[in-house]
Write a structure and sequence with these properties.
The protein is of the alpha/beta class and about 190 residues long. The protein contains 4 helices and 10 strands. Strands 1, 2, 3, 4, 5, 6, 9 and 10 form an 8-stranded mixed β-sheet that branches. A two-stranded antiparallel ribbon has the order 7-8.
């Protein structure tokens, strides 16, 4: 009996890990995106961002001007990597950063753990995001997604890890959009 329980627990764990890489907060039903192909991707937002355990302003107050400039460059690069990630996985969909009506996708970064890499000591970087999909100002879907990027010799810089994380987040969003527009399982 004990062996059977552990087998069931293992199956439950495997099934949970095979689920979609997003968490649905809200999802419009019936699905208004079924068969749609055009989406407007709003600029990535960092409003009320928490970095580590601090609001972004408090985090940046501890940095010198060069570090603050680098942080701004990292966020700009994250936005581009995110867009590239969405486009790279949203096959058959038109993803535009310009308003053309239809569905608007609003990505909002809520949390960043920069992490660090100093030889034997390292902490992975994390990026969490909330994505809202609207049509004509009406909220249809809202999901949360998050990724962890290991800090190691192959990826020692915070900026590199944040860019990689943004690209992976974009890929997850692209898969979500394909899922919603095709009606296929995730």
């Amino acid at each position: 009996m004990e062996r059977r329980r552990s087998g069931i627990a293992l199956l439950a764990l495997v099934a949970a890990s095979c689920g979609p890489p997003w968490q649905v907060v809200r999802q419009a039903m019936p699905n208004p995106m079924l068969g749609q192909r055009a989406f407007v991707l709003a600029p990535m937002s960092f409003v009320n961002l928490v970095v580590g355990e601090k609001p972004e302003a408090a985090y940046l107050a501890e940095k010198d001007p060069g570090q603050r400039g680098s942080w701004d460059q990292d966020k700009s690069a994250m936005a581009q990597m995110f867009l590239d990630g969405v486009r790279g996985t949203a096959e058959g969909l038109a993803i535009s950063p310009r308003s053309s009506g239809g569905f608007t996708v609003e990505p909002h970064v809520t949390f960043i753990e920069p992490g660090f890499y100093v030889g034997l000591a390292a902490r992975s970087s994390e990026v969490n995001m909330t994505v809202r999909i609207l049509q004509g100002g009406t909220l249809l879907d809202e999901i949360t997604i998050g990724v962890t990027v290991p800090a190691d010799l192959g990826n020692p810089s915070v900026g590199g890890r944040l860019r990689a994380g943004a690209s992976r987040l974009g890929g997850i969003l692209g898969r979500y959009l394909v899922h919603r527009t095709s009606g296929q399982a995730p």
